[in-house]
Automatic annotation (TrEMBL):
GO terms for molecular function: transmembrane transporter activity. Its main location: membrane. The keyword Endoplasmic reticulum does not apply. This is Multidrug resistance protein stp. PANTHER family: MAJOR FACILITATOR SUPERFAMILY MULTIDRUG TRANSPORTER MFSC. It comes from the Bacteria. Gene3D superfamilies: MFS general substrate transporter like domains, Multidrug resistance protein D. Keywords: Cell membrane, Membrane, Transmembrane, Transmembrane helix, Transport. Belongs to the major facilitator superfamily. EmrB family. The gene is stp_2. CDD domains: MFS_MMR_MDR_like. Residues 16-518 form the Major facilitator superfamily (MFS) profile domain. The chain crosses the membrane at residues 14-34, 54-71, 83-108, 114-132, 139-162, 168-190, 202-223, 235-253, 273-294, 314-331, 338-357, 401-422, 492-514. The lineage of its organism: Bacteria, Bacillati, Bacillota, Bacilli, Lactobacillales.
Amino acid sequence: MQNIVHEKTNSKRWLALIAISLGVFMALIDTTVVNVALPSIQTSLNASYSDLQWVISSYTIVFSVLLLIWAKLGDLYGRKLMFMLGLVIFTIGSGLDAVSTTISMLHIFRAVQAVGGSALMSLSFALIGTSFDGKERGIALGILSSIIGLSTASGPLLGGWLVDAFSWQSIFTINLPVGIITIILAWFFIPNKQTHRASGRVDFLGMILSAGTIFSLVFGLVQKEMHANWSWGELQVAGYLGMAVVLFALFIWRQWTTKNPMMDLSMFKSSSFTGAVIIAFFLGAGLYGFFAYLSTFMQNYVGYTAWQTGLRQATISGFSLILGPIAGMLTNRLRHGYMLAFSAFFIGIGLFTLSALTTETATFADFWPAFIIIGIGGGSINPPMTTAAMSSVEPHQMGMASGMISTFMQVGVSFGVVFQGLRLADGYQAGLSQYLPKVTGAPTAMITTLHRVLVDAGPFSGHAIVTSKRVLATPFAHDLQTAIRLSFNRGFISIMHLDAVLLIVGGIIAAILIKTGGNDNSSK
């Protein structure tokens, strides 16, 4: 009889994992799936380029700001309850996105959707940590980590298919049936188990300072991303970043002095936890931020459609499904810092390899070995990172630890996208100055004008300009297209070198700081 009860409880755990994984998949994929729908949204809603950027930014900013707050609310009022509330908000927000008739409505409803999505991501690891024990926890974290890696890279694939087959609204309406199913699964199978319920008063000031810090930081970076010609000293950039520093200092002061802090800073006494959040930042900046530029490169310059791009990027994301659970099982046997170093080095080597294979005529037939190397590293990095974070804190700290990992990763993505964009623009402009004058047969005045137009349009639009009917009619069109491809390649290679260094440095830090796992499992 006892065995039957155990089997039922055990099966409920795995059904709970399905619910949690579906929620996280929806939340994360909506940070990338919308990218391939932007041209259709622009036509349908008569949106400007700036409007389209805010379709993405309104989601990512709200998503980042609320991660820590949801983690604390989960500790206070129950993680299952807050997770389900996030599911409801996310599902309703998705439906509102689909019925938007103006670009302003879409901006607002994307923010609503992000409120729910932030809860799903923030609470997921903590729910796994309290639902599973021992070896099963490592396997479950490995599976969830696989979903995270898969969702980040598969956005273009799913989005491309939905937009091509139906409409841009379909990328949001598909969340309605999935959301309802996930709500039902969560209600019945996620346990109410809470190892600790935070007591005392809610630290509202801490929440405000936390939200203000992350908002100012991410918004300042978004401003720089949207206005690459602005200097870092521009008031609209430096002002927000400076405000983030001030608010962060006030937040730390508040956490040290209040009786009921929003965040338990004692978690950072563990070198393993500190190492986990650092590698989360480097992973977001060096790999997940890179996918946006990889998709643009493959569509705008190599010539693949959104669907074809996503299908080829599955060479990277597919490893998450295979290696995630395996890496999760190995977290019970191997030191987590060494596992993270191995995975980060693999990603770095893959990026260096991809940069070496990037030529003016390269296609996926040339890239696939590098994609496989990146996939092996990316598919095995999340399980030891999350396991290290969860196993280096006390059970009652798991909610905040989960939120911290998610926050550092998301802020890392924001940093990565901005700095990669700057490296791309610098390399692209340097390439234009080097290669455009070498186009034989083109009048000097035309090259001068075209150079100015291409710089103003930016690296994403260069290929579209030189493949216009007017340019194609010229006898030097092929040489011109080669010059633009070489210019973009120069910036793109610069991005890959930057990201490879970030991942390798992150891996070294992880190997030094993270002592959980293996024979040192008791060490924090």
